[in-house]
Amino acid sequence: MELIPCIGCLDEIENIGVSMKKITEWVILSGKFVTLVPLEYNRHDEFVRAIEEGQLHQLWYTNIPEPANVKADIERRLALHEQGSMLPFTVIDNQTGVAVGMTTYMNIDAKTPRLEIGSTWYARSAQRTPINTEAKYLLLEYAFEQLGGVAVEFRTHFLNHQSRRAIERLGAKLDGILRSHLRAKDGSIRDTCVYSMLASEWPAIKTHLLWLMAKPR
């Protein structure tokens, strides 16, 4: 069998996807209930209050910083943004104008392109409200419709049943479970559930999320 070289094929492959710079470009995403703005230090005290409100840092199956370590966590996320591997957001409750959490684009693969929505946490008062649904909607809409993503991933602790239900409610499908994947902050070894949505699934999921946000509560 004769192999015929494909002149320019490698160049074509190199040009597929989007630039990392575009994916990690600062952007503001606004909805009815929530606005996602670039992460900044000026919300530090609001983050601390949000964490203290529900003692979120004491949840063993999550990785929410201690109130005293919020500044260091902001620094970590901004450093990852500087390196081009994360786009961190502050989650603002439109009703109060106050920060109620953080979320990010992370594990970014610009060539494919695909990314993970993760490192997310919300104040207790913002949980089980339209805030999470709309925040995810805004992030998914931007990832699929503006960045041309082919897949968006979500990961969570196998035993974080609330997070798993929330992800499944969005319409994501379980890809699999990474056994003994990471060491949790309490020293235990965690299994990680990996979920994803595909670009081909986005139109139906978009309709579903718009319905969830519009239905009476």
From TrEMBL:
Alphabetically, the GO molecular function entries are: acyltransferase activity, transferring groups other than amino-acyl groups
N-acetyltransferase domain mapped to chain residues: 46-200
Query: What InterPro entries does the annotation carry?
Result: Acyl_CoA_acyltransferase, GNAT_dom
Name the PROSITE patterns on file.
GNAT
Recorded hits in PANTHER family, A to Z, give: BLL6696 PROTEIN, N-ACETYLTRANSFERASE DOMAIN-CONTAINING PROTEIN
Q: What is this protein called?
A: N-acetyltransferase domain-containing protein
Q: Which organism is it from?
A: Xenorhabdus bovienii str. oregonense
